[in-house]
Design the sequence.
């Protein structure tokens, strides 16, 4: 455990508590956000990605680590606010109501199963990890592990059935139409890797081989897209294909998925792909312009923590402390054209969460691969 990293997380947490807006036992924050192509400012929604539930989850983890009452009290008030503002937008783990209920279960050690079932309705227009069925499976499996409720597992199976039905099955493998692009997307947040990961987690619980086969077909699709020269997978969101190195798109998220898939399946080819991805992450992460979890250095460092590559993650953490925290310079967050934002996946809560992860990764679970087992042995990667 590194006390300096806990201190960095505490300072970030203290600023979030300072900036919280209280009303009748609940609390919220305001933040910049994108309104089309314009940066606007307003109160946070309830979601895990950039809203109140994500900040509550960070402050709760910080309270568990430090024992500080202000972090616990603010976390509890924030999750009350988020739960009061649910349902969210669809069934997604990061953008929808299931993510809020997951955070509530973590903080309050209880959840409303009826509310979970209501939020967990599949929608064929929402299939990915951020917004749809893949993320819903992750949330439902996490909650199912707490109660072993057959209803929660049945809800997860309904989402898996939808994913199997909606798969585009071609010679090169299976993929899914999610947020659009010149081709169906690779990657974790909206692409084939994230959907494959969710199906593998469900196969691990149910033993149903059809989910494993679907995941392998998704990996085959991404393998057909791999660019040897870039040692990366293409991002098809725009007509001009790019090769990002993020959790959301590109090598970091795909490498994280392959590590977890290798843990479950033990296939050496998956480990080879993970090694290729991690090499790309280590080469290009220092050039990323922000420290967010979604598409910045903190998220990439979290992938390295999962792979037990602590030296590389530690270098990223040290740079952040030296360049920003000790100089009192605002942290570069993940919203283009804006300053510091408070949320989990784009802002300060996520940066603080990363420092907690690095300080004690066995105690602080990743929010980038929720519910999955830590760690890959260092000697194998």
Sequence:
């Amino acid at each position: 455990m590194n006390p300096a990293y806990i201190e960095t997380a505490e300072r970030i947490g203290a600023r979030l508590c300072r900036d919280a807006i209280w009303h009748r036992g609940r609390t919220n924050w305001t933040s910049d956000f994108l309104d089309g192509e314009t940066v606007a400012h307003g109160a946070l929604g309830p979601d895990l990605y950039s809203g109140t539930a994500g900040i509550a989850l960070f402050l709760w983890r910080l309270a568990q680590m430090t024992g500080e009452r202000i972090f616990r009290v603010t976390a509890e008030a924030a999750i009350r606010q988020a739960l009061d503002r649910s349902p969210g937008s669809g069934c997604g783990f990061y953008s929808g109501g299931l993510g809020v209920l997951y955070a509530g279960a973590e903080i309050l050690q209880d959840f409303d199963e009826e509310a979970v079932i209501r939020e967990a309705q599949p929608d064929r227009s929402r299939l990915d990890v951020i917004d749809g069925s893949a993320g819903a499976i992750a949330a439902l499996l996490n909650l199912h592990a707490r109660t072993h409720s057959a209803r929660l597992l049945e809800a997860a199976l309904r989402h898996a059935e939808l994913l199997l039905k909606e798969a585009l099955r071609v010679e090169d493998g299976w993929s899914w139409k999610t947020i659009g692009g010149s081709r169906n997307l690779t990657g974790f947040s909206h692409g084939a890797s994230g959907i494959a990961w969710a199906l593998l987690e469900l196969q691990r619980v149910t033993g149903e081989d059809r989910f494993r086969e679907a995941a392998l077909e998704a990996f085959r699709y991404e393998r057909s897209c791999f660019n040897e020269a870039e040692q990366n997978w293409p991002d098809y969101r725009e007509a001009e294909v790019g090769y990002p190195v993020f959790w959301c798109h590109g090598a970091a998220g795909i490498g994280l998925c392959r590590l977890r898939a290798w843990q479950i399946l033990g296939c050496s080819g998956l480990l080879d792909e993970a090694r290729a991805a991690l090499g790309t992450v280590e080469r290009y992460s220092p050039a990323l312009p922000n420290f967010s979890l979604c598409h910045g250095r903190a998220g990439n460092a979290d992938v390295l923590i999962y792979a037990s590559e602590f030296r590389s993650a530690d270098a990223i953490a040290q740079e952040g402390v030296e360049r920003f925290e000790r100089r009192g310079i605002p942290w570069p967050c993940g919203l283009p054209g804006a300053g510091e934002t408070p949320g989990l996946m784009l802002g300060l809560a996520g940066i603080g969460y990363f420092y907690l992860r690095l300080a004690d990764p066995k105690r602080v679970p990743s929010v980038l691969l929720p519910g999955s087992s830590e760690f890959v042995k260092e000697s194998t990667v």
